[in-house]
Amino acid sequence: MKLSKKGAVTLATALVVFLIATGLMLSRIRNLESSYNEQSKQMQLLKDEYNSLSNELSAEKSERTKYQRLYDEVSIRNEQLEAELEN
Question: What is the DSSP letter of 1?
Fold first, then answer.
């Protein structure tokens, strides 16, 4: 099968367009992959920071509970002492 000159030019043009489009798509894929990797790193940093803050909050809640218990004990003892003083 022999192509006419016009057919050969059309085929060559289509091939060039295909190669350019493929190159552009590969470039876009690489850019998206790079962006994805960067966002994944950012997500991991945010997750680590969240976990750190969550652990801090848990520790503070635990400490606050401990101090609340001590305060309650002192308040009860204070009431007992006041009652003894009144008697």
Answer: -
Distance of CA 5 to the CA centre of its chain: 58
Q: Which two tokens stand for residue 79?
A: 């009431």
Whether the full predicted model's pTM is greater than 0.70, yes or no, is no
Q: How many residues does the chain have?
A: 87
One-letter amino acid identity for 84? E
Q: Which two tokens stand for residue 51?
A: 């976990």
What is the radius of gyration, based on Cα positions, of the chain? Answer: 37
- In the chain, alpha helices (H): 5-86
33-46 pLDDT, tens digit each: 999 999 999 999 99
